[in-house]
Design brief:
The complex is a heterodimer of chains A (277) and B (283).
Chain A lengths: L1 H4 L1 H17 L1 H4 L11 E2 L7 E2 L2 H32 L2 H16 L2 H20 L7 H25 L3 H9 L4 H30 L2 H6 L17 H8 L8 H33 L1
Antiparallel strand pairs in A: 1-2
Helix pairs in contact in A: 2-12, 4-7, 4-9, 5-7, 6-7, 7-9, 8-9, 9-12, 11-12
Chain B lengths: L1 H35 L5 H5 L2 E2 L4 E2 L2 H32 L4 H15 L2 H15 L6 H25 L3 H9 L4 H30 L2 H6 L19 H11 L7 H32 L3
Antiparallel strand pairs in B: 1-2
Helix pairs in contact in B: 1-11, 3-6, 3-8, 4-6, 5-6, 6-8, 7-8, 8-11, 10-11
Classes of the chains: A mainly alpha (277), B mainly alpha (283).
């Protein structure tokens, strides 16, 4: 039993070991410095370049826009479901949100490709609908169930006495919700948003299908960008195993793993601290 | 009075935002059902693809997905249930269990494409399985392991302490107690959580992209070391890599609908089972 239970630990170690194993050849040739530059040109007749800055900027841009959309929508929906909705509404809304969590990312990506991207193209008068914004809208939608579920838990675990005291002092329901309940649940809500961001950064298929995959540094939401995840998915199929390009893609994976690991650990710390109060 | 009017309008705004999310989800499902339905017929479900996926059915992709999911559950269910039983029933809470829990949380946060890289490094290359059902199944199994452990542990924790204490007081051993007095009541909950994991495995594309999926393979696999087509990957290929993506739009919608139905069945089953058992075993 304890061996089975340590499986999770073993798998985490195996993931790190095998990512590193395939990535290490890159250190001696062409050297890690090669990663820290701003041109990602993995296939070239002159000189291949493996600068990951454009991939990181792509991931960051998409994640920032998605988070900006995610925070108001996710938190407001969580507040509504836990504090305002009537009993039967909750019974309907919660399974519906769970269904959203179950829709495969490739289906969301497909919807984005054939329905949303033409809409965005027309709406903003662009040459292409495959933009950072298109990806971010869909990613925000995909991360909403995570944010709602965890924020709702946090809001529900605010002691009843807080609300009662506020109402007894003459505050309205609205004032109680936004001045007492939400601030008291804030650490849990922040953790929820961080976990949602973890999902957004790690998502592959949606960004691969709708962000246009142009590996250039841009901070314009209406530009095509290429994220770290999409780069791995798009290029891994075509590289020779053991080549420089191949190890470079594993480095992208390692960086991705470190980012999501960090977000997760901090979010868990916040959640734990919050629960102990 | 004025205050309550403005309060009401804020509530309505909040309600509107919440329901607009619901409306968007509804619209996505509606769009895929309406445009996918005309494509679905017996030939589409049971036929083989022809001319690199531009015509014909998607049987190999359906079969491939079923094999992958079945393989994943075969690996992850025993492992996940054993982990959960250990964590909830046997282990003394301490450093070791803290490490396991940290590992589970970490595993749950690993991006699916990184699981793909890992599967490629370990199963496809190091163990020499090649791109095959077994590589893909193991990769998916590790990906859904945290879901299964967490929900199984929750199910075990929900069984009242008195069940265990009564049995132990009558002289049963620890294992007899778990086997006869705890597991039977926790099993439904454990399976419910596992169904959610299976639903996720069925819809994932990124991990199988690197470990198993074949672009076009109009036959059924004959061994676990064969490559297979899979529904999510097939949809991705049809939608983005096909030279005449516009022309095969009906096939794309058909594939998306079949995948959606498959995954939604898993999810709805889990949601219903959970509420059924919650009502049945109210302690």
């Amino acid at each position: 039993m304890s061996i089975a239970a340590s499986a999770s630990i073993i798998i985490v170690f195996l993931i790190f070991i095998f990512l590193l194993k395939e990535a290490i050849p890159f250190i001696s040739n062409p050297g890690l410095n090669e990663l820290f530059s701003s041109n990602w040109i993995p296939v070239s007749f002159q000189k291949e370049q493996f600068g990951i800055y454009p991939l990181i900027s792509g991931s960051v841009l998409v994640t920032v826009i998605a988070t900006v959309l995610l925070i108001p929508f996710g938190v407001i929906a969580a507040v509504y479901i836990s504090e305002i909705a009537l009993g039967f509404e909750k019974e309907i809304l919660k399974p519906f949100i769970e269904i959203l969590a179950g829709i495969p990312s490739v289906v969301i990506g497909f919807f984005g490709l054939v329905v949303l991207s033409p809409i965005i193209k027309g709406l903003f008068n662009l040459n292409t609908g495959l933009t950072a914004l298109t990806g971010a809208v869909l990613l925000a939608l995909m991360a909403i169930p995570t944010v709602i579920t965890i924020s709702e838990d946090a809001i529900r675990s605010v002691p009843k006495s807080y609300k009662e005291a506020s109402l007894a002092l003459g505050a309205s329901r609205l004032q109680t919700i936004f001045r007492i309940t939400v601030p008291a649940a804030l650490p849990g809500i922040i953790a929820a948003i961080m976990l949602g961001m973890g999902r957004v950064i790690g998502e592959t298929m949606v960004v691969l299908m709708v962000t246009g995959n142009a590996a250039k540094i841009s901070w314009n939401p209406f530009d095509s960008v290429r994220t770290m995840t999409a780069t791995i998915a798009a290029e891994m199929g075509e590289v020779a195993i053991g080549s420089t390009h191949y190890s470079a893609l594993f480095w992208v994976g390692i960086i991705l793993m470190i980012i999501t690991f960090g977000l997760n650990i901090v979010a868990q710390k916040v959640l734990k601290k919050y629960q102990m109060r | 009075m004025k205050k309550s009017i403005s309060e009401n309008s804020v509530f309505w705004a909040v309600r509107f935002i919440t329901y607009s999310i619901v409306a968007i989800i509804g619209y996505i499902i509606f769009d895929i059902v309406i445009k996918g339905l005309p494509t679905i017929n017996l030939e589409f479900i049971t036929g083989f693809p022809r001319s690199s996926g531009s015509e014909g059915g998607i049987l190999p992709a359906i079969v491939g997905t079923v094999y992958l999911v079945f393989g994943a559950i075969l690996v992850s269910l025993p492992l996940g249930m054993a982990s959960a039983i250990y964590l909830s029933e046997y282990a003394k809470q301490g450093r070791f269990t803290r490490m396991i829990r940290l590992a589970i949380v970490t595993l749950a946060g690993v991006p699916s494409i990184v699981f793909g890289l890992f599967g490629l490094g370990l199963f496809v290359i190091f163990l020499g399985f090649g791109a095959s059902i077994i590589s893909g199944s193991f990769t998916l199994a590790f990906m859904i392991l945290p879901t299964i452990i967490v929900s199984s542990e929750e199910a075990l924790q929900a069984v009242p302490k008195s069940n265990r204490e009564g049995s132990l007081a009558l002289g049963a051993t620890e294992w007899q107690t778990i086997y006869k007095n705890v597991l039977p009541y926790a099993l439904p909950g454990m399976f419910t959580g596992s169904i959610l994991g299976v639903g996720r495995a069925a819809g994932e594309t990124a991990p199988i992209l690197l470990t198993v999926a074949a672009f076009f393979l109009p036959r059924l696999p004959s061994s676990i070391f064969d490559q297979v087509m899979a529904l999510p990957y097939h949809l991705y290929i049809l939608a983005t890599q096909h030279p005449e993506a516009e022309k095969v739009l009906p096939l794309q919608y058909g594939t998306a609908l079949v995948l959606l139905i498959l995954v939604l069945i898993f999810n709805l089953a889990a949601i219903f089972l959970r509420s059924y058992f919650r009502k049945k075993y109210k302690w």
